[in-house]
Design goal:
The chain is of the alpha+beta class. Among the domains are: about 100 residues, Beta-Lactamase; about 170 residues, Heat Shock Protein 90. It is built from 11 helices and 18 strands. The strands form 5 sheets. A 5-stranded antiparallel beta sheet has the order 2-1-5-4-3, with helices on both faces. The longest helix has about 90 residues. The protein is rod-shaped.
Length: about 575
């Protein structure tokens, strides 16, 4: 395809490629983005639901634990008399029973209304302790039951207590018990999904009531999120990972029912999201690989389509050129036949008059006729030029006459060899080698041998004229589909593109004036077209010319045609 059409095909290529990619990649990308977002939302909901379930379950466990401990202390205080509870041995016995049922207490004591310990059982030396100035002591006198926040107290270690006030038989006393923090801490521990997951308790002022693995120890401050303190719902909030500042964890907070503490559960979902990250990676990989495959497929398919389109346009252009050439042949054939008929009549008259002059000269003596030799030579020249002119008109008539081709078995190798033999003497005189490269397996074709021989002789003779002297012409045959091909190549001077485009035009010749009529190749083109074949030419200036003749297995069947003089021809 010529370079003039390259921008057109290039633009069409990119438009078609863009359309293919738009139609193919858009659904893939939309599906990938939808999948990533949908999966992310599902996993987010799953993690939130799991965290809420853990928080709710842990809160019930803590409330149950504290409710049972309060019930134990109240039951002990209201089912036993002051004398029993103040008896050190009896109190120790009751404490042992409680610990056997649930080892949840550290110590226990009976305190009088003056704040002085009356009886005590436990590991600390608190028998002489006085709690008159303790905040919880005054509070239990007002409320009757107190569960304190964690404080240091006389032990100087963080702890919290349950205190119950009882009035019986004119006697008032307070039963105080210290909760074992390790038991409470154990309730908060479980197998979480990540290494940085944990649970801890915080009071309303943000003071840690239990130890946190990553956010502080008991009685240290923890920053609470904005939250309605009286709300019983679960609040989900982000919390920064202390170990990895660039990561955020998922936190949940819920108020306990038994006391004004908040349960905070922190879930490190990063490790639990490993499968999600892997799935997202696979989806991204699928998108990338799928996009590359689609781009490559669209590119090669588009290039193949454009290639077929270019080939189709090239073939159409060749067909159009052949049809144009055929129409030119038909029009020029009519003109040539008319011109030949018109010219033949005066040529006959000139030839007869020249013969009559010669006859008159023969009756005269050369000595008696002035300029006898000049007149005789002029008659001979007239007869020679008339013969030459008649040869031209005969070729014009041959060009204009449309004859149906014969249908005879043709051994193409033998026919090409005969044509070479006819021109061998002329080639030898010019020192031009006629090389023959015939395919021994060439099939027999059906065609008109005389017209084919005329074509071969004409093309080989033109090759000899083009070389002039000292060169070579190679005649090759080969199988071509179900027919055959003849290739005639010379190492002559070749021709430029402008000459190659007009080589089959009637009356176009590169020979000197008087040496050619420009009808030889035009007649060859017309003959091959009638035989159902075609001829092509490739030439490079300075390197030679190659003519390729393609012949079908047999010529097409056509009805009888008439020549341009109106007579039927066979």
């Amino acid at each position: 395809m010529s370079s003039d059409h390259a921008p057109v095909y290039r633009g069409f290529f990119w438009r078609m490629l863009f359309t293919f990619l738009l139609l193919s990649l858009t659904p893939l990308i939309v599906l990938g983005v939808f999948s990533l977002r949908h999966i992310d939302a599902i996993y987010g909901e799953k993690i939130s639901a799991g965290l809420e379930a853990v928080t709710s379950s842990k809160r019930r466990a803590l409330d149950t634990f504290l409710t049972e401990r309060i019930a134990q202390i109240k039951t002990l205080a209201f089912t036993h008399s002051f004398e029993e509870l103040t008896d050190a041995g009896r109190l120790s016995q009751l404490f042992s029973v409680m610990q056997n049922n649930s080892a949840s207490f550290v110590d226990m004591g009976i305190i009088g209304m003056d704040g002085q310990h009356i009886a005590y059982v436990g590991p600390f030396d608190l028998k002489s302790a006085n709690y008159a100035k303790a905040e919880w002591f005054a509070e239990v006198q007002r409320k009757g039951l107190v569960v304190t926040d964690v404080f240091l107290g006389l032990r100087k270690i963080p702890h919290f207590i349950i205190a119950v006030l009882r009035h019986a038989e004119g006697q008032s006393f307070i039963l105080r018990a210290t909760i074992d923090m390790e038991v409470l801490q154990a309730l908060l521990q479980r197998e979480y999904s990540g290494r940085h997951s944990e649970a801890f308790l915080v009071n309303q002022q943000g003071i840690l009531q239990t130890d946190s693995l990553y956010h502080g120890k008991m009685m240290e401050t923890f920053t609470l999120p904005d939250y309605q303190r009286s709300s019983q719902r679960i609040l989900l909030f982000p919390i920064q990972d202390i170990a990895h500042k660039d990561r955020w964890l998922q936190g949940a907070m819920m108020r306990l029912a038994t006391m004004p503490w908040f349960l905070v559960v922190v879930d490190d979902a990063y490790e639990s999201l490993t499968s999600l990250h892997q799935l997202q990676t696979l989806i991204m990989l699928f998108l990338v690989v799928g996009s590359l495959v689609i781009i490559a497929g669209a590119f090669f398919c588009t290039r193949r389509i454009i290639g077929h389109l270019q080939l189709s346009d090239a073939q159409k252009k060749q067909i159009d050129a052949r049809m144009l050439q055929s129409s030119k042949m038909a029009a020029l054939g009519k003109m040539a036949a008319g011109v030949a008929h018109e010219v033949n009549n005066p040529l006959m008259l000139i030839q007869e008059n020249a013969g009559w002059i010669r006859d008159l000269l023969d009756e005269e003596s050369p000595e008696t006729v002035k300029n006898y030799q000049e007149i005789l030579q002029s008659c001979m020249k007239i007869e020679d030029h008339v013969k030459r002119a008649k040869g031209i008109t005969q070729r014009m008539l041959g060009f204009g006459r449309r004859m149906n081709p014969g249908r005879t078995e043709v051994l193409l190798n033998s026919l090409a060899d005969d044509a070479c033999e006819m021109l061998r003497a002329e080639a030898t005189n010019r020192n031009i080698a006629l090389n023959r490269n015939f395919d021994a397996a060439l099939p027999v074709i059906y065609s008109d041998p005389s017209q084919l021989e005329q074509v071969l002789i004409n093309i080989i003779d033109n090759a000899l004229d083009a070389i002039g002297r000292n060169g070579e012409v190679t005649i090759s045959t080969r199988k071509e589909n179900d027919g055959a091909a003849i290739v005639i190549a010379d190492n002559g001077p070749g021709m430029d593109e402008a000459t190659r485009q007009r080589i089959f035009d009637p009356f176009f010749t590169t020979k000197k004036v008087g040496e050619g009529t420009g009808l030889g190749l035009a007649i060859c083109f017309s003959i091959l077209e009638k035989l159902g074949g075609h001829i092509g030419v490739e030439s490079t200036p300075g390197k030679g010319t190659v003519f390729t003749i393609i012949l079908p297995h047999e010529p097409p069947v056509v009805p009888l045609e008439t020549d341009f003089s109106g007579q039927a021809s066979a």
